[in-house]
Amino acid sequence: MVLQDVMDLVEKGQMLPLMEEFYTIQGEGYFKGTAAYFIRVGGCDVGCHWCDVKESWNAETHPPTAIEKIINNAASYSDTIVITGGEPLTWDMGPLTQGLKAKGLKTHIETSGAYTLTGVWDWICLSPKKMKLPVPEVYEKANELKVIVYNKHDLIFAEEQAKKVNKDCILYLQPEWSVRDKVVPMIVDYVMANPQWKVSLQTHKYLNIP
C-alpha cells in the first residue's frame, strides 16, 4: 500500500497509529479493579510535562494498523475496551467504535477532551489539561471527570472544570504519580472537606501491572 493511501485511511479512521494493546486490570476511576482490554493510540499535542507515556506523542513512530485487526484482537480478550493514548480524539474514532459495538463490546475512552468527540461510547473519562481545554461537547457527555493533581493550584483548576460537566458526572482527584507522597495528604483533606469529590489512585502501579 502506498504512503498516500495509508494516510488517507488514517484520516478516515480506517487505520490508526497503534502504540500498544494489552489485557489488564483497569487501575483508575470508576471501573478500577475490573478486567479490560486497552488500545493505546499514538498521537498527542497536549504536552503534559508529567505524562508517563511521552513515547505516545509522536504518531509517526507508531505503525498505522487496520482497525479490523485491532477490533478482532480486542474481541478475543474482553467485553470492555478502553481506548486511550496519546490523545485518541486526535483521530476519527467512529469506525473503530462502530466495529467494536458490532461485536457487542463496551467502549470506554480516556481523553483530555481537547478535540471533537467522535465515536460511540458507553463511558467517557474526561481528564482535562490546562494547556488545551476540552471542547464543550465532551464536558456535556463526560461520565467521569478525573483531574490529575500535581500541586495545590490543580485543586482550583478541578473546581473550575467541575462547573462545566453535567450534574451526573462523577468527580475524581488523582495524585500525579511522581509527587504522590506530597499531594495525597492534601487530596485526602480536600475530599473530606468537599465530599462531592472522590479519590482516584493509579492502583495498577501499586499492583505492578500494565
From TrEMBL:
Instruction: Tell me what reaction this enzyme catalyses.
Output: 6-carboxy-5,6,7,8-tetrahydropterin + H(+) = 7-carboxy-7-carbaguanine + NH4(+)
Top-level enzyme category:
lyase
Its pathway, per UniProt, is: Purine metabolism; 7-cyano-7-deazaguanine biosynthesis
Q: How is the cofactor bound?
A: Binds 1 [4Fe-4S] cluster. The cluster is coordinated with 3 cysteines and an exchangeable S-adenosyl-L-methionine. Binds 1 S-adenosyl-L-methionine per subunit.
What Enzyme Commission number(s) appear in the record? 4.3.99.3
User: Keywords of this protein's UniProt record, alphabetized?
Assistant: 4Fe-4S, Iron, Iron-sulfur, Lyase, Magnesium, Metal-binding, Queuosine biosynthesis, S-adenosyl-L-methionine
Q: Which InterPro entries match?
A: 7-CO-7-deazaguanine_synth-like, Aldolase_TIM, rSAM, rSAM_sf
- The record lists S-adenosyl-L-methionine as bound by W50, C51, D52, G86, S127, P128, K129
GO biological-process terms attached to the record: tRNA queuosine(34) biosynthetic process
GO MF annotation, one: 4 iron, 4 sulfur cluster binding
Any idea which positions bind [4Fe-4S] cluster?
A: C44, C48, C51
User: What residues does substrate bind to?
Assistant: I25, Q26, G27, R40, T84, P210
- Per its Swiss-Prot or TrEMBL entry, what cofactor is needed? [4Fe-4S] cluster; Mg(2+); S-adenosyl-L-methionine
> Signal peptide: which range, if any?
none
Judging by the UniProt lineage, the source's domain of life is Bacteria
Q: Domain named Radical SAM core: which ranges? A: 31-210
**UniProt xrefs under Pfam families:** Radical_SAM
Quaternary state and partners of this protein? Homodimer.
What role does it play?
Catalyzes the complex heterocyclic radical-mediated conversion of 6-carboxy-5,6,7,8-tetrahydropterin (CPH4) to 7-carboxy-7-deazaguanine (CDG), a step common to the biosynthetic pathways of all 7-deazapurine-containing compounds.
Family in the record: Belongs to the radical SAM superfamily. 7-carboxy-7-deazaguanine synthase family.
Q: What is this protein called?
A: 7-carboxy-7-deazaguanine synthase
Q: Which organism is this entry from? A: Croceivirga radicis
The organism that produces this protein has a lineage beginning with:
Bacteria, Pseudomonadati, Bacteroidota, Flavobacteriia, Flavobacteriales
